[in-house]
Design goal:
This is Ava_C0101 and related proteins. InterPro entries: DUF5996. With 313 residues, the chain is α+β, with helices and mostly antiparallel strands. It has eight helices and twelve strands. It has helices at residues 9-33, 96-109, 142-163, 200-205, 264-267, 273-292, 296-299, 308-312; strands spanning 46-47, 51-53, 57-59, 64-71, 76-81, 86-90, 174-176, 181-191, 208-216, 226-232, 249-254, 257-263. Strands 1, 2, 3, 4, 5 and 6 form a six-stranded antiparallel β-sheet that branches. The chain has a six-stranded antiparallel β-sheet with strand order 7-8-9-10-12-11. β11 (249-254) and β12 (257-263) form a beta hairpin. The longest helix has 25 residues, at 9-33. It starts with 8 loop residues before the first helix and ends with a helix.
Length: 313
């Protein structure tokens, strides 16, 4: 296959919209059944060799350990308990309402009756409609779901390589179910006061200075798959820094902030596509770090090595 396969939004939008809501159902279970971590690191999905996983969680009266995995090769959801029992069902042709009910039924069968808080989509056009009533979103094309996972896997490894170059506090590379993007975030270690009026999701996510790098599959605002980076809070002079490669640019991100963006299709077929993406992430980071006054040299981790003996050699 191509290093970065084509995945135009218009071609797979119906499957994407269904999958997005599937992930929100499972993500809200993860939110209810995991120990809270700083900056919500407990909530996103991680990639596996066949799809996505919640990682182990616990629930029920006896705190039974379980995981939920989306197998995007066999196109099934699996709920598995620590005692070896599991329940599987097919994703193909299943409405969001059916997916929701089958998932909760599987949890009940395994003795982990987790209940979903705010049992409706988050920050989507139908956010006021309960999952149990969504029979509209039911398109699941197996080939499109497989391609989504394949692209995620490629980008995941690029972000892991980028992550290795930073020795400071840094998030895992993880896939967010509310925004349907994959990202990694670097932290300066300096607190950022947030207003009490700010919503609690934002207050926790941006309680420190950050520079994030990631990729999303496109939406109504940016209708194409795109690599991105942003610095928060945004420092003065950020957009005066050049970006590379040539297709990269600064765009308004709302509220007066800006994003560095690189369209996926501008680089994906290039012989050095991965090098161009890494150059984009590195340049956007340097722009944010220099503008905000981060100690770039002290935070650097060349080749992922902190051992001073190995670093000298």
């Amino acid at each position: 296959m191509e290093t970065l396969p084509a995945i135009p939004l218009a071609e797979w939008r119906p499957t994407k919209e269904t999958l997005h809501r599937y992930l929100q159902v499972v993500g809200k279970i993860r939110l209810a059944a995991s120990a809270r971590r700083n900056h919500w690191w407990n909530v996103p999905f991680h990639l596996t060799g066949r799809g996505l996983t919640t990682r182990p969680m616990s629930g029920g009266e006896d705190d039974r350990i379980f995981t939920i995995d989306l197998d995007l090769v066999a196109h099934e959801l699996q709920v598995a308990a620590l005692d070896g029992r599991s329940v599987r069902f097919s994703l193909v042709g299943r409405s969001v309402a059916s997916f929701h009910d089958q998932t909760l039924s599987a949890l009940d069968e395994l003795g982990v009756p987790v209940r979903i808080p705010l049992d409706h989509p988050f920050d989507l056009p139908d956010q006021n409609r309960p999952f149990t009533e969504d029979t509209e979103h039911r398109v699941y094309e197996a080939a499109h779901a497989l391609r989504y996972w394949q692209v995620l896997s490629r980008v995941n490894l690029l972000l892991e390589r980028f992550s290795a170059e930073f020795r400071g506090k840094i998030s895992p590379v993880h896939h967010f179910w509310h925004t349907f993007d994959i990202a990694v975030t670097r932290f300066r270690g300096r607190p950022v006061p947030q207003s009490a009026d700010t919503d609690p999701v934002t207050r926790e996510a941006y309680s420190e200075e950050v520079i994030s790098a990631g990729f999303w599959f496109g939406d109504d605002r940016v209708p194409e798959p795109t690599f991105y980076s942003y610095t928060a809070p945004e420092p003065e002079g950020l957009t005066g820094h050049p970006l590379e490669p040539a297709a990269a640019r600064w765009v308004e991100g709302g509220g007066g902030s800006h994003l560095a963006v690189l369209p996926y299709d501008a680089v994906r077929t290039a012989p050095d596509a991965e090098d161009q993406v890494l150059a984009f992430y590195r340049g956007a980071y340097r722009a944010g770090a220099a503008s905000a006054g981060w100690d770039v040299d002290q935070l650097a981790c060349p080749a992922g090595i902190t051992d001073p003996v190995l670093a000298r050699s």
